[in-house]
Design goal:
Elements (H helix, E strand, L loop, with lengths): L2 H16 L2 E3 L6 E3 L14 E4 L2 E4 H10 L6 E5 L12 E5 H14 L10
Antiparallel strand pairs: 1-2, 3-4, 5-6
Helix pairs in contact: 1-2
Bound molecules: zinc ion.
Length: 118
């Protein structure tokens, strides 16, 4: 594959995402306005169709910017906004790190049982 082909593909994926993203000037979040994974457990993440497959928007964005994600790693939102797909707000962590962070975050927000609204 020629390098230009790769670049074109990355650009077209980026464009496809950005068409449905609304940038929040206060937080810097790139909020996905397209379909999501719903409101249940594991829900609230942006979903999009790529090559006939349904994929998580922030993961596509991360891969597009930083490359391949090993299967043991997860993509965490530093901003805790699941709809955000700003590569600057995404971080690759292990499943363990992610759980630890989530637990810590939940403890810090005990007074509020609601997930943060975007
Ligand atoms: Zn964000």
């Amino acid at each position: 594959m020629k390098l230009s082909t790769v670049t074109d593909r990355r650009q077209s994926i980026f464009d496809k995402i950005m068409k449905r993203v609304k940038i929040d000037k206060d937080t810097g979040c790139w909020n996905w306005t397209g379909p999501t994974s719903g409101t249940g457990r594991g829900g609230g993440y942006g979903r999009m169709s790529l090559d006939g497959q349904t994929v998580a928007t922030h993961i596509v964005m991360f891969t597009n910017f930083y490359g391949y994600i090993p299967s043991k790693k997860q993509i965490d939102h530093k901003c805790r906004n699941r709809l955000c797909c700003n590569p600057d707000h995404l971080e690759m962590v292990t499943h363990k790190q992610n759980q630890k962070r989530r637990a810590k975050w939940n403890t810090q927000n005990q007074s509020c049982s609601q997930e943060p609204s975007s």
